[in-house]
Amino acid sequence: MFGLKTFIRYCIVILICVFPALVWVTMEPLGFRFESLSMTLKSIGQLTGLVGMATFTLTLILSARWQVLDKWFGGINKAYEAHHNLGVLAFLLLLIHPIVLALRISLTSVYQAALFLLPSGNWSIDIGIISFLLMMMLLIVTFFARFRYVVLKNLHKFLGVALFLGGLHSFLIPSDISRNVTIRWYIFSLLGVAAGVYIYRSIFPQYFVKKYTYRVNHIRKISDTVTEIVMRPLGKVLQHKAGQFVFISFKDEGGTVNGEIHPFTISSSPKESFLRIAVKGLGDYTKTLNLLSSNSIATIEGPFGDFTYYTKESEQQVWIAGGIGITPFLSMARYLRETKDIRHIIDLYYCVQNKGDAVFLDELLQISKEFSNFHVHLFLGSERGLLTADIVEKECGELRGKEIFVCGPPIMMQSLKKQFLSLKIQKDKIHMEEFKLL
């Protein structure tokens, strides 16, 4: 079930991928293309190769973390979701491409079909085989392996090599790309943009990717597992909206933090001079961040995301946070206080197992005292179990027409999303902070 905007975006993405096939259809009569089993297999091989190459290039383009993609998709998480889905499609199409062509050859010789899939000394074909094997290996590792993000990030760099070899293969062999000028220039243009993205993002990011430099001012321990890192700018100040996130790489003089790039939600208000993030030690990397020393350098890219309350249509809203998912709402609440916003009517559900897990609760309650339209509901799992959409509707009244924001564990968000949709709430009124590195 898609919202209208998402449906339109995916239609445009699909059109970009299948455009070469639409041109291919006009090149020769379809009756001739499929007049025999041999011609049918050849046609399927051509179509999967054309659409697979276009899809693969678009997959690489969508991995660029461009802010224009963030805005067009309504969040970089949605661009990454499209990137992941297209990667699966490209994998399948480019897997089918040589197999179907080999099946066609097997109609006359099984031996020649087997040789077709092996290097033969014909460089135009061998380059395609190398590209195919490299891409298959990288995509399989990306989809199924459970490596650390920094390892996957480095592996992704080799997708550009696979794309370059695949593009070279496409232009060297006799094919519809070489026979049709429209297809040739279309694929060439896509490859050119993808190559630019590869150079921009993977080869020379230090020159092309806009970043901000901050210094760690101080670190505040909020609980046994949550740490707030407060940073001050060393140059240009990052301008963000309440609820957005950034990618940060820390460089610690003591060497306790390894400099990996990770996404973090900004917890400070856009009006604050300092930039704050709240980090829960859930993994090897995040557990080391409480060891950061003052004066450590933070290199920041962003901001990203559209998880922002004041950009939405309705001023009546429900915010639901699960655990450390409170961070974007903390930024929103702080901004609410600083702008003295009395237009929005907001119910914040803060879901934790026990009251001691509710970090920043005192600050949120203080804001609710200052603004009568901001209501904080502490929802304790140890006493009430899991929060449901029915409970929210019972306590807040009719939900249809209200903007609903949810940030928390993926299982919680998926469950609540299904429940809200079952209550006939419009999908474009349900906003999930679903960013993950796909």
Could you please describe the fold and organization of this structure?
- The chain is α/β, with parallel strands linked by helices and 438 residues long.
- The protein has 3 domains: 4-207; 212-304, Translation factors (Elongation Factor Tu (Ef-tu), domain 3); 309-432, Nucleotide-binding domain of ferredoxin-NADP reductase (FNR) module (Rossmann fold), CATH 3.40.50.80.
- It has 18 helices and 11 strands.
- It has helices at residues 4-27, 30-33, 37-61, 67-73, 76-106, 110-116, 123-144, 149-156, 159-172, 176-179, 181-203, 205-208, 284-288, 327-339, 361-370, 381-384, 389-396, 410-422, and strands at 212-221, 226-233, 245-251, 261-265, 275-280, 297-304, 316-322, 345-352, 374-380, 403-407, 430-432.
- α14 links the parallel β7 and β8 (345-352).
- The longest helix has 31 residues, at 76-106.
- It is elongated and about 80 Å long.
- The mean pLDDT is 86.
